[in-house]
Amino acid sequence: MLEAAVLLGGAVLLWVLCSLWRASLRSRCGGLLPGRAGALLLIAHPDDECMFFAPAIIGLLREQRPLSVLCCSTGNYYNQGEIRRKELIQSCAALGIPSSNVTLIDHRELPDNPRVQWNSHVLSSLILDHMQDKNIDLVITFDEGGVSGHSNHISLYNTIRSLHCARRLPEGCSVLVLESVNIFRKYLSVLDLPISWFCPHDVLFILSRAQYKQATEAMACHQSQLLWFRHMYVLFSRYMMINSLNFLSCDQEGPETKVKDS
Ligand SMILES: [Zn+2]
After folding, report:
1. How far is CA 33 from CA 62, 63, 96, 140, in A?
2. How many angstroms separate the alpha carbon of residue 113 from the centre of ligand 1?
3. Distances 52 to 80, 134, 164, 211, 239 between C-alpha atoms, Å
4. How many domains does the chain have?
5. 108 within some domain
6. What residues form DSSP beta bridges with 42?
7. How far apart are CA 248 and CA 125, in angstroms?
8. Cα 45 to middle of ligand 1, angstroms
9. DSSP code of 218?
10. What DSSP state is assigned to residue 238?
11. One pLDDT digit (tens) per residue for the chain, 262 residues
12. CA 78 – ligand 1 centroid, Å
């Protein structure tokens, strides 16, 4: 009797998940994103684009939105900067972004280092120059948690927030930040779908099976990073198939009081 109840419960849960997945594939995001010019994905390291943002990238490209990537370091922590530069280009190509839309910054004030908060003045100037070149009216980047708590990720949030709240971004430009979830949800894979669906968010991107395969193919381009735990990440991280994002608001608590060096 108990066994039958468990089986029935499992079947109902599976049915709910499949229904939510199908519904989300039909409805998410269409026409909700502001602006019609270029979107900019702002990341800190080669591999951020597919480890964290693959659902947003694939979703934006499906909406025929011009998308460029600005990667603010070469990921040179283990002296693999040159290798990782090539891997970024290959990974972006696998996701559908041509190399002409990928820019990688190599600046001594912006080292790949989890203990370094990047120089906000240098970063601001590089971001604003790039946005002007590419006619950007939507920026997508990390939130105050940086997904993994990496200080370089959080530096991007702090800088873009300062620019946004000081009205230094181009007029009409919106900023979407990727929601950092707790470690339990982070590794729930597709089982996080109902939680993501019901928790408040402004934009939700969810990948189909074929699109998830595309994201894993992009991840495979980062051969230098594919240690055993990265394979586990690809299997279990919800970020490989789900991105929930929120519009950045200047009413939120500022980074001065909220962000700690991790
Ligand atoms: Zn990173």
Report:
1. 13, 10, 19, 11
2. 10
3. 20, 23, 22, 14, 5
4. 1
5. yes
6. 70
7. 20
8. 5
9. H
10. G
11. 556 565 566 666 666 665 555 555 544 444 467 767 899 999 999 999 999 999 999 999 998 889 999 999 999 988 898 999 999 999 999 999 999 999 999 999 999 999 999 999 999 999 999 999 999 999 999 999 999 999 999 999 999 999 999 999 999 999 999 999 999 999 999 999 999 999 999 999 999 999 999 999 999 999 999 999 999 999 999 999 999 999 998 876 555 434 333 3
12. 13
Asked whether 174 and 137 are in contact (CB, 8 A), the reply is yes
Q: For residue 229, give the CATH number of its domain.
A: 3.40.50.10320
**Residue 97 located in a structural domain:** yes
State the pTM of this model. 0.85
Beta strand ranges found along the chain (DSSP E): 38-43, 67-71, 102-104, 136-142, 174-178, 203-206, 242-247
Distance 120 CA to ligand 1 centre (A): 17
